[in-house]
Design brief:
Layout lengths: L5 H12 L4 E5 L5 H10 L3 E5 L3 H8 L10 H9 L3 E4 L10 E4 L14 H10 L8 E4 L7 H10 L11 E4 L18 E5 L2 H12 L5 E4 L2 H31 L4 H8 L27
Parallel strand pairs: 1-2, 1-4, 2-3, 4-5, 5-6, 7-8
Antiparallel strand pairs: 6-7
Helix pairs in contact: 1-7, 5-6
The structure holds nicotinamide-adenine-dinucleotide (NAD).
């Protein structure tokens, strides 16, 4: 077998450019539902997948189960025929691209629980076909796409970078943040091969304002970890300083606001759940 032919790459890119590519989103939660609506708004036909039939029923009725996603936003896309959802994974065959947004909580041993990614891979591989793009978006350790997801998908007899495209693109959703919509948040993308990156970047570029290509799936996975670790460390720092300020009779918010006027080297963080001390084993990674 040869690497994905340049004709196959051009063909899928042309379908993306023309808005004719059919996009599947697996896991219709805080990340997957807004992502589905973003691609539908960009003119793509989107098919969502979830193992929770109650969510599928709610979406089919043009409703929402997420506080920050109004039912009208769902209805606008279901009524236009651009968005529908199903529990039937045999429909994976209809798709050009499959974006995986399933949970990755921590196990009781505080290790990433990959069971949802494994479960998704097992649901997908019997229905994969040559020329499709699969992108993992779930937060996980560097190596997850290559070491965990790829071997499961390859049970199909198809090979990543040879028969189908494989990429990782971390989700940066901040649910309820009115300042940033999914379509405006730059999308970091790393491919299993250069052709995989090319196709994945073309797809996201058709729906999202800016795409940031990196050299590999591992680099994209590590980028997400850096962002999350940076945030956790800084929230923990502010939590500690808040207690200190309280004891010293100062208001931490006054201090943060004043420090935030420094034009470089300081980004304000605010108190929050912080680092491991308060996170429960089932705390989802974000
Ligand atoms: N929520 C956030 O703010 C946020 C931000 C950035 C990254 N992330 C990451 O994105 C990923 C998804 O998080 P989320 O918050 O959307 O989770 P969520 O729990 O809101 O939604 C996940 C959905 O996946 C479905 N699901 C589980 N297993 C499935 C399977 N095998 N097939 C199909 N559907 C399945 C669930 O029923 C659920 O509807 C996680 O890795 C998370 O760490 C989340």
């Amino acid at each position: 077998m040869t690497e994905l032919t340049s004709e196959l790459v051009s063909e899928l890119k042309a379908r993306i450019r023309a808005g004719r590519a059919k996009v599947g989103v697996v896991g219709l939660g805080y990340v997957g539902l807004p992502l589905s609506l973003t691609f539908a708004r960009a003119g793509f036909t989107v098919l969502g997948f979830d193992i929770d039939p109650a969510k599928i029923t709610r979406l089919a009725a043009g409703g929402s189960y997420l506080k920050h996603i109004p039912a009208e936003a769902v209805l606008a896309q279901t009524a236009s025929g651009r968005f529908s959802a199903t529990t039937d994974f045999s429909r994976v065959r209809e798709l050009d691209a499959i974006l995986i947004c399933v949970p990755t909580p921590l196990t009781p041993a505080r290790e990433p629980d990959l069971s949802y990614i494994v479960g998704t891979g097992e649901s997908l591989w019997p229905h994969l076909r040559r020329g499709q793009l699969v992108v993992l978006e779930s937060t996980s350790y560097p190596g997850t796409t290559d070491e965990c997801l790829r071997p499961i998908l390859e049970k199909s007899g198809l090979r990543a970078g040879v028969d189908f495209y494989l990429a990782f693109s971390p989700e940066r959703e901040d649910p309820g943040n009115a300042h940033f919509e999914t379509a405006q948040i730059p999308k970091v993308v790393g491919g299993h091969t250069p052709a995989c990156l090319e196709v994945a970047a073309a797809l996201y570029g058709a729906a999202i304002a800016s795409v940031v290509p990196v050299s590999s799936t591992r680099a994209a996975e590590m980028t997400k970890l850096l962002e999350n670790i940076y945030r956790s460390v800084n929230i923990a720092l502010v939590n500690e300083l808040k207690m200190l300020c309280h004891r010293m009779g100062m208001n931490i918010f006054e201090i943060i606001d004043a420090a935030a006027t420094k034009p470089s080297g300081f980004n304000p963080s605010f108190r929050g759940p912080g680092w491991a001390a308060t996170a429960s084993p089932s705390t989802p990674s974000t």
